[in-house]
Amino acid sequence: MFSLTEASALAREPEVAAALDAVDRYLAGTSGPARFRAARNSPDAVPDREAYAGLAEVGVTSAIVPEEMGGSGLAPGAAALIAERLGRALAREPFIENVVLPVGLGLALSSRSLMDAITKGEILCVAWQEGPFARPGVTPVATRLERDGRGLRLSGRKRFVMGARASSGMLVLAEIEGSHAIASVPPATAGVARQDKSLADGTCWSDIDFDVWLKERDVIARGDEVVPALSSAIDLANIAIAGMLYGLQSRILELTLEYLGTRVQFDQPIGSFQALQHRAVDLYTHAQIARFLIGEAVDSAVRGAPAHVLEAYASRTKARASDSGQRIAKEGIQMHGGIGYSDEYDLGLYVKRILVLSAWLGNADWHRRHLAAIDPLGDGGMT
Amino acid sequence: MKDWNALSDADFRTEIRAFVEKDFPPHLRNHPRRIPRWETTREWFLTLSANGMLAPNWPAAYGGMGLSASKMIIYFEELERWGVPRIYDMGLYMLGPILIRHGTDAQKSEYLPRILSGEHRWAQGYSEPDAGSDLASLRTTAVPDGDHYVINGQKTWTTFLDDATHMFLLARTRKDGRKQEGLTIFILNLDSPGVQRRLITTLSGHAELGEVFLDNVRVPAANIVGPLHGGWTAAKDLLEFERINNGSPKLPLYALNQLNAYARARGLFDDPAFRDRFTRLRLDLQDQYCAYRHFCNRLKSGRTPGPEVSMLKLWSTETYQRLSELFLEVAGEEGVEADLLDVAGSLSALRLYYRSRPSTIYSGSSEVQRNLLAKRVLKLPGARP
Questions:
Q1: pLDDT over threshold 80, residue B129
Q2: What architecture (CATH level 2) is domain A127-222?
Q3: What is the chain A residue with the closest CA to B261?
Q4: Which of the four pLDDT bands, split at 50, 70 and 90, describes residue A110?
Q5: Res A314 pLDDT > 50
């Protein structure tokens, strides 16, 4: 009733269906919420690295890497379908930050070396943001790559870097001689100072100060292609986040419907009260609108799809899935009553995860403004 | 017969747009009535018919366009974009599909061509004074008498009654058992002896609804559509089709176009608060398209829309109303001036406000849709039908 599978033609293609089955089998062997709870606010990266290794084992890390670069070659939209499964299971696997973003960047740059690193088991993250979310290229990049006698010096501060703690390589956006570049930086290098910030859901992102010397070969891309490539990786990540948000909210909705059916007050299940039934229907309706939109975005996110199409889908899905997710989250708490507000019940874990994922890479408000700017008439897809 | 689906979506849009811009009578654009009289729209109806473009949803074998989901959406969009008013479409969107699905060959050949020619204009006889949301409790009876049935009762809130020639109605043919299991669909010629009509003026000031009194009206048994006593199932099928039709984005799109034009004329897009509210609503509409396409595709693949389709009607009509409410609000004093109500081509917030009100009442009120979803989709305990 709630899965994205029926809403997406891609989900029913045999290779994709097989990949999703493998993800499901893997997740069945992990105990999502319990593991997520146990690893909350973990001070080190061990749980993240173990979870990443789990993803690599079932082929998820190279699922959307093209076949000619050693991956399974699934359409990029499949990332959102995988993310939905991970969301439903409340898996803490660092899929979007350490897989979708770097692979998306590799896809957009057609970078063999990046893909090789990923298929060989490197854990990569992308460090590009320096302040509140804005698309790359909109605000000047303060992090600089400068050449002098000793080589290339990278200096600056990146913020909100998700997946940095577990990574073995960081892809850093920098300004170089009036243009842009992506530099690959090993995290253990002297001159990299990482400060982890714990988040509402018990995961973390990092602020990172760079003042390091790099070699020419560490610059993996430079020039006019960098900003559009990074933007398209972020678009793909946002479609995947929407898939994950959808998985999380569909699970909250299920928990809430179960509770309405079993919790007895005034000698009847509270789900027999029309006031609650109608509210539950409204949550269902919002989830369905998100579901069919995401399904369509997934099917549109094929290799070679026009960038402006994905840009619009990314903002639409992110805005919609965040809004419906937060609506379902807060109504889920309310309909559960006291137990919904308790930390020992799993519902709150899903709620907090929705809060974090909604805020990361642009919240609903940001994406709606962006849509109004790129498509002010509001008739994209309509007339 | 033209194979419309052989065209690319873009070419299809170009073709429909060119046709509408060339052949639609200009004086009827943005007509002030929600449903203009037959006399007003007949010429356009017949133009569509002559060009094989009247029934986008019917299979080509019956004279329809047999459009794919995406092309059907384009078809409605292009008509909406040009401000084309509603035609006498009850036969096209309601009776047509049910006859194609449940009708006898004789019924199909008798009625389908006459829907397309405009000779028969249909009204739907479902609601009664004491059977609105609780439709299955309807009391109009049909009693067999030789090879006829004798019908007695009253139907109300009937759209298109002013110029309808025929009605398909639900009547009770059996009194025992579950109330849903004793209903049958009949085809009724409204010129039959014993039929009386009275028109009802609505809040919009137009007599766009009506009621029908049935006093010993004789109808041939051959006019039964689908199985005897099996009308509820067939009608429910039809209601699901109707909900797809009601869930199509055309109503909120109409409202968005009106609000958009008004906002441009008044410079409202310079106000960030307005822009934000407008963007939310246009995304509500834009995202509805994805759900609409899903249900249309389901239909095309031979499945019924299923009870889930109620969400589409809820979303569409409530978005429609929110757009009309935003329009009324930003129009301020101008919003309550009634002098533009009947002026063709004018932008009137009040007209849109009136026009959008009945959408959450007809063909199953929003409350009934929520009850249905709670029971049949969410399976919540003790939910009402």
A1: yes
A2: Beta Barrel (2.40)
A3: A377
A4: very high
A5: yes
CATH number for region A227-374: 1.20.140.10
Residue of B nearest to A376 (CA): B279
Measured between alpha carbons, how far is B200 from B57 in angstroms, rounded to an integer? Answer: 30
Whether B181 is catalytic: no
Inter-chain residue contact B380 with A257, CB threshold 8 Å: yes
Give the separation between CA B65 and CA B59, rounded to whole angstroms.
6
A320 vs B253: CB contact, 8 Å cut-off? Answer: no
Catalytic residue among B242, B308, B329, B337: B242
Nearest CA among A236, A239, A153, A221 for reference residue A192: A153
Q: β-strands A219-222, A169-176: how paired?
A: unpaired
Confidence (pLDDT) at B81: 84
First-to-final CA distance of chain A: 31
Please give the structure tokens belonging to residue A50: 């173990």
Looking up tokens 């209903």, which residue turns up? B183
- B374 and A371 within 8 Å at the Cβ level: the answer is no
Confidence of residue A381 (pLDDT cuts 50, 70, 90): very low
- Contact between A235 and A78 under an 8 Å Cβ cutoff? The reply is no
What are the E-state strand segments in chain A? 124-127, 144-148, 151-162, 169-176, 179-185, 192-198, 204-214, 219-222, 264-265, 268-269
Distance from CA of B276 to the nearest CA of A (A): 7
CATH class of A4-122: mainly alpha
What number of other Cβ atoms are within 10 A of residue B1's Cβ? 10
Tally: H helices and E strands in chain B: 12, 8
Q: Which residues of A touch B287 (CB under 8 A)?
A: 289-290, 292-293, 316, 320
CA geometry: angle B350, B352, B354, nearest 5 deg: 70
Rounded CA separation B48/B43 (Å): 9
B290 contacts in chain A (CB < 8 Å):
289, 292-293, 295-296
Nearest CA-CA distance, residue B306 and chain A, Å: 12
- Tell me whether residues A277 and B380 touch, CB distance under 8 A: yes
Kindly list the domain boundaries of chain B, sorted by start residue: 4-87, 122-230, 247-377
Local confidence band at A377 (pLDDT 50, 70, 90 cut-offs): low
Domain B122-230 has CATH 2.40.110.10: yes
ipTM: 0.93
* Gyration radius (Cα) of chain A, Å: 21
* Contact predicate B285/B252, CB 8 Å: yes
Yes or no, beta carbons of A7 and B294 under 8 Å apart: yes
What pLDDT digit, counting tens, does each position of A151-161 carry? 899 999 999 99
- Nearest beta carbon to residue B381 from set A269, A284, A368: A269
> In whole angstroms, how far apart are CA A377 and each of A96, A383, B159, B283?
32, 10, 34, 12
Q: How confident is the model at residue B248 (pLDDT cuts 50, 70, 90)?
A: confident
Please report the pLDDT score of residue A132 as a whole number: 94
CA separation for the pair B186, B153 (Å, rounded): 13
Contact B31, B344 (CB under 8 A): yes
Closest chain A residue to B82, measured at CA:
A383
pLDDT at B239 over 80: no
What is the C-alpha to C-alpha distance for residues B72 and B64, in angstroms, rounded to an integer? 12
Residues A45 and A47: their CA atoms lie apart, in Å, by 6
Q: Please give the average per-residue pLDDT across B7-18, as a whole number.
A: 95
Q: Is B261 on the interface with A (CB under 8 A)?
A: no
Hey, where are the domains in chain A? 4-122, 127-222, 227-374
pLDDT at B171 over 50: yes
The CATH code belonging to domain B247-377 is: 1.20.140.10
What tokens appear for B149 in the block? 């049935």
Distance from CA of B71 to the nearest CA of A (A): 12
Please answer yes or no on whether B260 and A292 come within 8 Å at the CB atom. no
